[in-house]
Amino acid sequence: MAITATQVKELREKTGVGMMDAKKALVEVDGDMAKAIDLLREKGMAKAAKKGDRIAAEGMTYVAVKDNAAAIVELNSETDFVAGNKEFNDLLHAVANAIVEFKPADVEAALELKVNDDAETLNDLIIHTTQITGEKITLRRFVIVEKEDSQSFGAYSHMGGRISSLVLLNGADAETAKDVAMHVAAINPQFVSREEVPAEVVAHEKEVQMNAEDMAGKPENIKEKIVEGRLNKFLAEISLADQPFVKDGDQTVAKYVESKNGSLKSFIRYEVGEGMEKKNTDFAAEVMGQIN
Asked: InterPro entries annotated for this entry (predicted)?
C-alpha cells in the first residue's frame, strides 16, 4: 500500500527514528502503525523514544565558523559524563558544521539536513549516538551569524564547551574579536551597550533603587542624584561596551576594540542548560532501588 508523509511523520514523532527508517518500517508492515513501532523496537532503532521523558540538561556548546558565517550551537545530554565522550563531541561538531554550511531556519529544519551520501539526517545521527551512549541527546538551540568582509568573528569556548561565545566586530581583526569573546564568556554581559538596554529594565532598576532602605528620609532631589549614579553603575555592569576589559581592567571593552580600529557589533553567549529545569538525582537511592 502507499505510505503517506503523514504516516511517516507520525511514526517519527512516536519513535524518534529517521525518515527513511520510518518509511521502510511502514512499508514492511503495510502501514500498520503499531506493528511498525514494534518492528523498530525489535531492531533497536526506537530505543531513543523510551528516553523521551528524560531531562537532557547537560551537554556542550560549540561555535563553527565557515567563511563569512558562524553558528553557535547547544547540544544536550543527560549527564556531563556522556557530554565529555568522543561520540558526543563528534556529533556536536558534525551538527555545528552542518548548520553553518546549510543555514537552516530553525531546529526542526536542522534535524532534516542531509549530512552524508547515505541520505542520513542530523536527526539520524543524533538517534544513533543516543543508542550508543544510552542517553537522550537533543539539539536545543543555535544561532547563525553572517558577517561582511570588513567585519571580524571571534569565538571562544570555556570549561571544555560548557560556555561558548560568538562575537562580531566592525573592523578590527580575528585576534581582537577572540579576546572580546573570551571576555563575554567570562563576564556574561547582558547587552552590547547601555543604549540597547530596554526602557522597562531601566525603569524597574530605578524603582528598586528609589525604594532602597538607605533612601528613607532623604529629600527627593538628593535621592534622584544618588539613584542616577547607581543607574550608571548598573548600566555599566550589564553592558559589554562599558565593562572593564578582562585582560586589561584599566580600559573598557569598547576602548580596547577602538584601539584595534574596530567597534562592537553583536555577541551571543551560550551556557549549557541555562533556563532549563535540571533533574536532581540521588544516585545512592537509585542504586538501592535497583538492588531492592
From this structure: EF-Ts_dimer_sf, Transl_elong_EFTs/EF1B, Transl_elong_EFTs/EF1B_dimer, Transl_elong_Ts_CS, UBA-like_sf
For residues 152 and 171, is the Cβ–Cβ distance under 8 A? yes
Nearest-angstrom CA–CA distance, 214 and 246 = 32
Task: Tell me the C-alpha distance between 131 and 97, whole Å.
Answer: 22
pTM of the complete model: 0.75
CB 252 within 8 A of CB 245: yes
What is the rounded distance in angstroms from the CA atom of residue 35 to the CA atom of residue 16? 16
Give the range of the structural domain holding residue 74, as residue numbers without chain letter. 58-146
Residue 39 lies in a domain: yes
Per the DSSP assignment, residues forming a β-bridge with 153 are 168
* 8 A C-beta contact, residue 188 and residue 274: no
Closest Cα to residue 157, out of 84, 72, 92, 266? 72
CB 78 within 8 A of CB 58: yes
Asked if residues 18 and 121 have their Cβ atoms less than 8 Å apart, the reply is yes
User: Is residue 30 one of the residues assigned to a domain?
Assistant: yes
Per-residue pLDDT of 194-238, as tens digits, reads 999 999 999 999 998 988 888 888 898 999 999 999 999 999 999
Q: Please tell me the distance from the alpha carbon of residue 115 to that of residue 205, in angstroms, as a whole number.
A: 48
Whole-number Å distance between alpha carbons of 151 and 139:
29
pLDDT above 60 for 180: yes
Closest C-alpha among 6, 7, 47 to residue 28? 7
Domain final residue pick, 115, 146, 177: 146
- Residue 133 φ/ψ region, left for φ over 0, alpha for ψ in the -120 to 50 degree band, beta for the rest: alpha
Return the CATH number at 87: 3.30.479.20
CA-CA distance, 97 to 80, in Å (whole number)? 22
Q: Are residues 74 and 33 part of one domain?
A: no
Q: For residue 164, list its beta bridge partners.
A: 157, 270
